[in-house]
Specification:
single chain, mainly beta, five-stranded mixed beta sheet, 4 helices, globular
Length: about 150
């Protein structure tokens, strides 16, 4: 018997909310999900970088994903969560409102980003998913941090 092809199996995505919008990222890049912890601000950091937290002895930069995507900065409460994710060679924390679900999708369910979307949207959004009557934007994590920030933090 031959092994089933991975193309037919699809991929697992973790979905989360920022404001009233829903986004998702590949679950393979997610290391853990943890509650909000106040971050220590960094001088001269971009506006979307909240600061850093201590994650079991390692310094973890926290990116306000809403601010990074142009949706406005979050005012974190105890209900906010940090998605600890691998972006390129760096581990970063992504501040989001709440984690919603784990989605199993096939590649043919991912619709291309519309041409009318701004260049910034096309930079971050890999595609769109129509699931249960709602639209979920599939985020490309490797574009969340500019390359210069990744190199400086590495």
């Amino acid at each position: 018997m031959s092994e089933p092809s991975s193309a037919g199996l699809g991929r697992e995505l973790i979905s989360f909310r920022i404001g009233s919008q829903e986004f998702c990222v590949d679950i393979m890049s997610v290391r853990e999900i943890r509650g909000w912890t106040p971050a220590t601000a960094l001088p001269q950091a971009p506006p979307f970088v909240r600061g850093v937290i201590n994650l079991r002895g390692a310094v973890l930069p926290i990116v306000d994903l809403g601010a990074r995507l142009g949706l406005g900065a979050a005012e974190p409460t105890a209900r906010h969560v940090i998605i600890v994710a691998q972006v390129e060679k760096q581990i970063v924390g992504l501040l989001v409102d709440a984690v919603s679900d784990i989605l199993t999708v096939s590649d043919d369910m991912i619709q291309p980003t519309p041409d009318v979307a701004s260049e910034m949207v096309r930079n971050f959004v890999r595609g769109l998913l129509a699931i249960d009557g709602r639209m979920v934007s599939f985020i490309s994590l490797d574009r969340v941090l500019p390359e210069s920030d990744l190199e400086a933090a590495a």
